[in-house]
Amino acid sequence: MSASPDTRQRVRATSSKERLFEAAMKLLATRSPEAVSVDEIASAAGVSKGTVYYNYGSKDELVSQILDFGAQKLLRELTKVATGPAPYLVLKSMLEFAMDFVASYPAFVQLWMQEQLGADTSSVFTTMPLHSQVTNLIIDVLDRLVEIPESEKLPVATTIFGAALFNARMSSAREDGLERDQMVRAVMLIVDGLLATRPAATN
Amino acid sequence: MSASPDTRQRVRATSSKERLFEAAMKLLATRSPEAVSVDEIASAAGVSKGTVYYNYGSKDELVSQILDFGAQKLLRELTKVATGPAPYLVLKSMLEFAMDFVASYPAFVQLWMQEQLGADTSSVFTTMPLHSQVTNLIIDVLDRLVEIPESEKLPVATTIFGAALFNARMSSAREDGLERDQMVRAVMLIVDGLLATRPAATN
Amino acid sequence: MSASPDTRQRVRATSSKERLFEAAMKLLATRSPEAVSVDEIASAAGVSKGTVYYNYGSKDELVSQILDFGAQKLLRELTKVATGPAPYLVLKSMLEFAMDFVASYPAFVQLWMQEQLGADTSSVFTTMPLHSQVTNLIIDVLDRLVEIPESEKLPVATTIFGAALFNARMSSAREDGLERDQMVRAVMLIVDGLLATRPAATN
Amino acid sequence: MSASPDTRQRVRATSSKERLFEAAMKLLATRSPEAVSVDEIASAAGVSKGTVYYNYGSKDELVSQILDFGAQKLLRELTKVATGPAPYLVLKSMLEFAMDFVASYPAFVQLWMQEQLGADTSSVFTTMPLHSQVTNLIIDVLDRLVEIPESEKLPVATTIFGAALFNARMSSAREDGLERDQMVRAVMLIVDGLLATRPAATN
DNA sequence: AATGAATGAGGATTCATTCAT
DNA sequence: GATGAATGAATCCTCATTCAT
């Protein structure tokens, strides 16, 4: 009995589509989308240029699938972690996850930041932007830990988010990068600062 | 006594070279260099495309002059501020300056991050990279404030630097951005966290 | 039995690549490469400009393929002719071939002379330069005919080569050009001069 | 008594105009006019680009002045030499002069050949073209030496002219070039060939 | 499912030329 | 007599995209 075509399919290392996704991710890790050509992506994936169009329809579509995939994955996992019981440890876990995520999907931070800056905020926002969703998540956990004046919540959450992404991105780009746990501890100092200067949560 | 020709020179609104610099800065604030065309820069500056090449030789040169200018200015001012007497307030001033700087030179963070990622660290490094110079500055000030284990210094300084740049950049890109002082206070929480968990400096 | 697709391929008038080659050859016959634009070549070949780059990568590459093609063809044929038995007639045939060659590939002389002048002799010479290969060929044949002092061989061979190329090129450029056979006879006078003033070969 | 301004003028090494002429000559020796920029010429002459236009009005004008200057000089001198008494030696002298001329004005051959090829022969010819004037000169001298059928005169004269220019040009471009006298002797073989195969002139 | 050939719009750069000083 | 700044047309080249096979 020979292998069914179905099986053989699954055996073929990875599909063209996946290969392209990986290749694009790697290339977009250090360069802006405009600086990466479809040719380059295709040949890095070992397929022909036409295959990019066959699978993704356009360069922009490939790029935004990477962005969307990352955004969804980041949010999904972060939400999962955020439900844990001990808020301080939850925050730490969230940071750890974020660091690892950035290391695995290096293109993500780039693409996301670029998108943030280009922002035509005008668009009828269908979903809440990633940024808000993540800061909301952080705020929820912080609320379980300390009492913060409403006006400070967003800046603090944004700072935690930003420090995490920035550190992770910068260090993963250089072989002499900082250790993940060192970075996590440094960012957690923000929380330590809060704990030291604000009353504990009362709920 | 009439105005000297020297003075009249300076009066001519601004020179083509400066106009180009400003225009490029503005355009590069939200888009990568590859995504901004020379045509666009030239017409934003109100000069012909050829003038870009007359004054800067190439697009790359224009871009790197913006980067260099920013790096030097940032470092020079930060160094000046860092010499103040009260370390806690010094850090606050440094952050304030950094925030304002990013607001004035929005292209800078973009260009700098991009450059960090492209990193051909191989080059015979002539000057210490901006990143190291700034973190060294921060570490010096921190040392005057608290006692930190050697291994933690760099992660903490990097986090402060990163959080500042990231926040400043993100907020200055959106009209709904956070207030400068809110951001400064949020970042200063890192220092508060240190003060709460480490012994004070003993010098 | 119908024509194979292989055959049908070959039937399609001529491929873009070949059309470009021909067009470039024609245009380069009377103008330097710098004076012929890629646009011009493309439209003379009836293809789009992009096709030049798809097929040749750069203008320089197209030009040097023309040069290389010509050099190889010239040398190959000349070598073939040089093996004939009667040296005087061999020389005549070589000249006839050279004349016809120049008429068919008018761009060749231009490109080759230009290249000779630009000479970066520094390069690690991979093959013996065309010039030397041809003069060596001529010298071999002359040796079978007359006895020439070593020091005179190269000048004489060079003169034959040069006179042939120059005449052929000049005449093929003007409709009032000289007849091929007249030119051949004129150049052969060099050989006649040798025969009249040097002892016959003794081998 | 101080130097008069008039004198000082004459002292100034060479005028801008002459410097430009020399610089252009040198640069055009190995490259086509299209491949040499006005910038390059100006800076090789150590003057500003504007000065080219001040002195010559246009690049084309500068180039054709070089060509014209050379053509006139070559013809004038050659004519002078051609009037000598002994025809064989006259031809030799003409060749010697031509060789030296090409060595001194290396751009000339290039420019002239280019012009020959681009030839819109249609133009209402004001003066007889250089080529004809020179070959006529050669023919006159040859006539004093041997009897040549009318139809062979032009090919032979052209060959002498061509061989001379070509050899001179090629050798002056390379430091390993042939010696002038070797080249002259080689070209003179054409005359030897004539002498050996044609009756002497009878006039 | 995939590709190779071809395209044309756009982008960086060069360059002859003009002109005010 | 000479220059530096500026220009815009032309040039080389890149690249996302299309399409027949």
Explain how this protein is built.
- Four copies of one chain form a homotetramer.
- The first copy, chain A, has 203 residues and is mainly alpha-helical.
- Chain A has two domains: 45 residues, Arc Repressor Mutant, subunit A (Orthogonal Bundle), CATH 1.10.10.60; 132 residues, Orthogonal Bundle (Tetracycline Repressor, domain 2).
- In chain A, helix 2 packs across helix 7 and helix 5 crosses helix 7.
- The radius of gyration of chain A is 20 Å and the shape is elongated.
- Chains in contact: A-B, C-D.
- At the C-D interface, helix 7, helix 9 and helix 10 of C face helix 7, helix 9 and helix 10 of D.
- Chain A binds a DNA duplex (21 and 21 nucleotides) through helix 4.
Descriptive key words:
DNA-binding; Tetracycline Repressor, domain 2; homotetramer; 10 helices; disordered N terminus; Arc Repressor Mutant, subunit A; 2 domains; mainly alpha; about 200 residues
